[in-house]
Amino acid sequence: MVYKIILIIVIIFQNILKSHFQQKMNKKNILAHNVAYIIGVLMILFLPKMSAQNSLEELLDQYNNESVPYISVEALKDIQDQVLLLDAREKKEYEVSHIKHAKFVGYTHFKMNTVTVQDIPKDTKIVVYCSLGVRSEDISEKLKKAGYTNVYNLYGGIFEWKNKNFPVMNSNEETTEEVHAFSEEWGKWLTKGEKIYSN
Fold this sequence. Notes:
- The protein is α/β, with parallel strands linked by helices.
- It has 2 domains: 2-51; 57-196, 3-Layer(aba) Sandwich (Oxidized Rhodanese, domain 1), CATH 3.40.250.
- It contains 9 helices and 9 strands.
- The strands form 3 sheets. The chain has a 5-stranded parallel beta sheet with strand order 1-5-4-2-3.
- Strand 8, helix 9 and strand 9 (194-196) form a beta-alpha-beta unit.
- The protein is elongated.
- The two termini are 35 Å apart.
- The relative contact order is 0.13.
């Protein structure tokens, strides 16, 4: 939204310069007009990408293709005990905290047999989550390709879960305020709890 306002201001400024330019043609006006035009073009090209992460929706739109349907954290909370919940983060993230009853499957070293070895019926309702919902979409896609038909991606991941004040568990299965924030860039989306960063 901010870039659109700035863009409108630049366009207005360009039009003022253009009308002034038409009245008085000199080198300073030509230079000012060209600079304003270049700034406008650069803003059109780059600001949408820079501001594309002003909301969680924009972030997920940028990284995901929505090949797997989302489930909200509120909807998951209501059926948490009736689904197979899979954590698609790295082990160090899972050990800091995870959603209760979640099974660790990982991301970088994900292996389908961690799921298939459990003899889970293909129509079982499965919810996959990560920090925000990007990595979990990748794992969800793999589950769908393996024939699982009832797979959902948790919208906003464990960050959104914690942001709604829902409990997370540590490695001793005790409630904790700590959540692995993944990175400084991604950690800004975690607004509740205590951010933990580790290698």
